[in-house]
User: Fold these one by one.
Assistant:
Number 1:
Amino acid sequence: MRNGIAAVLIVRNEEKVLARCLESLAGVDQIVVLDTGSDDKTMEIARSFEADVHATPPVDPFHFADARNQALEFARQDWIISIDADEVLAKGALDLLRKATWREPKAAGFNVNFILFDEEGKNPTRLPKFKVFRRTLWKWQYRVHEQLTPLSAGLVIKNVMAAAIEHRPVPKTGVRVGQNEELLKISVDENPEYARNVRQLGMELYSRQKWAEAIPHLEKYLASNQGDRLDRSETMMRLAYCKGSIEKYHESIEIFEEAQKIAPDRREILYYKGVIFAKGRSVEQAVEAFEQCLAIPASSKPDWYLNVEAVWDGSAVLPELEEAKRLVVEGRRLWAEMQARKGKS
């Protein structure tokens, strides 16, 4: 079908969210579901929506790009919506995308408005994301955090920001987090030039409090000079926190200050800087950092998916500030008592 649209998914044990996703795809010309080893009702749910369902034997370690490319082979339409089971196509988006494919005949793909919710279905943030593309012009690459790569030069990507795809996740499991670390390590070994996965491995190790292991990967990513100011400030902030967590406080504070220079509108940098000051028993500096954090007006909050809402509403900062102030007062009291004892002697 000329200019037809297929939604293509790879799935595994997605019975909790798949029906919600498939319901949102009503009206597409084809739904392709490639199951990669489910042992729940995922395939049954997919068939109930008359999806074009296929299965492939489980692969360990998994390769996301290979699976996505395999799923594409079953698509019969010109255009592809790449969507995951925990995502939904927003109301009205399909009509907007159809019109875009007709009005932009030279386009090879489209960015849409990708809206991310947290695991409680709250705190949405938005970013443009490449989710709609001509099937014959692209292929997936990389084992994890895969991306579409062009099959020829000069392809044009347009924006359809009025069309939205919402990411509505369920709580992650420890098994999946562990799998992410394993796959990222393999992917970095396979494609060390792929800076995004170097960064993601550093972030994954950070999230598991493997501070020393995370540092070289975060440093390597920063040395690649990739990413915009928010992306780089986030990486610097995490690197600084890792350094502080292994008691390299001087290096840590220097990196925090560099991050502040490139993203002075971010409260998160000052908050985590204050936490590290407190860890290093520099409580007066911690108080200063927390107060500077709260002094950044909420109106300056970047519209970014890694905003920490508890920092912006103050619920994370205020208890830390009060405790740091308490320690300052206590420290001054102890100092005065010590000086008084010295005077008496």
Number 2:
Amino acid sequence: MRHQPAFFSVCLLLALTGCDAGDSRQMVGTLERDRIEIKVESSEPITSRQVIDGQAVSAGDVLFEQDPTRARAQYEQKTALSDQAAARLAELRRGPRPEAIRETRAKLAAAQAVTANAAADLRRERELFNKKLSNQAALDRAETAWSSATAEVEIQRQALEAQLNGTTLEELAQAEAAVAAAQAQQALAALDLKRTRAVAPLDGLVDKVLYQVGERPTVGATVAVLLDSSRVYARVYVPEYLRARVTPGSSIQVQVDGVAEAMTGTVRWVSADASFTPYFALTEHDRSRLSYLAEIDLASAGDLPSGIPVVATVAPP
């Protein structure tokens, strides 16, 4: 019984602390902007830099330029291959020229004349061989010459027939596919050449420049970080006991450190997962509590710097 007063004092202290925490409507955090990392797609050295830390940029402004020599050579090569494929397709669609057909006819006539001469030589060799005035080797040579001449006649006849029939549908399809592939390679090379210039994807503020002229970044390296100026928001930590009252779409009063008047913000997002509140976002009696990360859009905070502390206050129930 001696320790009852101390026991009741502890219970009363805990009850008062809990009530104080439950009645608090404040959430602390910082003013933020979305961070955009500008990456490069080649390892060519940086030849020029047009921005510095803290500079405001507009969408499309050039931030960095890399040496385009290699990318330009690849683009010119792919362009030439695309032109070659297109010319081949046009040739197949037009069909053989009359001059080519006449040339093939002349080759066929010459082959036929050679065949006739080889046939005559073969007949003479056989007569001489039968009369035992020639040997087997001479006869074999005459037969080989006649066979070769006959084969040449067939080759030229087939070539002439192919020219007269024109291009097949399968040949046209192959040529069209070759043109499409070459054009795709050309477009890819043009994109690689274009991306030797790193540009701002949106209006914003250069937070940090990470590379200098002459340096050679690796593929995929971040060369600069931008802060998106299109949306400024407060990132706050919602204590567990306020979570049910802070929902997307609800209005919240936000006091920015150093600004006299509070701003009205709209809750855009609240995390579904609880976490331990960071040490810098807590009052002393909240340091052991769970919290939910939330983002509150602020339409009137466009000129304020990122990272300054804010206090958001939930409307009374």
Number 3:
Amino acid sequence: MRRAFLTAICLGLLVGVPGFSGPVGAGTVRGFNPGDAFQDCDICPMMVVVPSGSFMMGSPQDEPERGDNEGPQRQVTISKPFAVGKFEITVDQFRAFVEETGHSTGNKCFTWEQNIWEERQGRSFLKPGFDQVGSQPVVCVNRDDATAYIAWLSTRTGEAYRLLSEAEWEYSARAGTATPFSTGARISTDQANFVGDYTYNGSKKGQYRGKTTAVGSFSANGFGLHDMHGNVWEWVEDCFGDYKTAPIDGSAQVAKSCDRVLRGGSWLYTPRSLRSANRDKLQPDNRDSTIGFRVARTLTP
């Protein structure tokens, strides 16, 4: 499904309100207040405390370009504050982990080069098919790479780092909104990194940058988080499942073997894919130049 959609987008490049049920919760956890930012070490990601609260997960049936897998909507309650990466994990942060542990990230990655999308030898998080600097989000990392980084970060700090659940991700992306984007009914390339040749819900065309941008290049959402829309897809904890049986407490749907959920859209996708409710899936061993990750941290009472 994802590959077919990406192929269609790449070919296109060759030619030119139910919402939050009430006030978002607050609460203090071990001295942390919602909105607080902190780092557990000098090479650790900057984290932001996200408040507890309830929201309607998924998209309403009248949301433009919604997918059938985005419903039925259901109310999800996040009962405790938790910390979320202010930014996606960067090249420099991931490189520090690789250099310290010797973790292998392989020598192949799906990349978009010379107007062709294919798996290429000699491509990795250091060579993703476009020029990058250390402050751009790491890409060409599969889910095992992400969880290995998180295990290292947890051991290094003594704190409980992890991937976000799918519900936590959408809650964090919406940041109190019930519109398609945290920016409202539309989004522009002044607000996120995506293929600006395409429009959504009456938006204007914008830039196509052709690669990732440095994290924090665009304004934060209402929770203080950057790039929840666009730049890179983000691995989350969940298996791709049916919303009819999905948890309502913010926890993840997991199994021993499954396709894993991706959220957020990327630099190579249209604005439709950047919507807060949009879902995609991919085999967890896949590495490509549109996929990275963001971390969460459980806060101890």
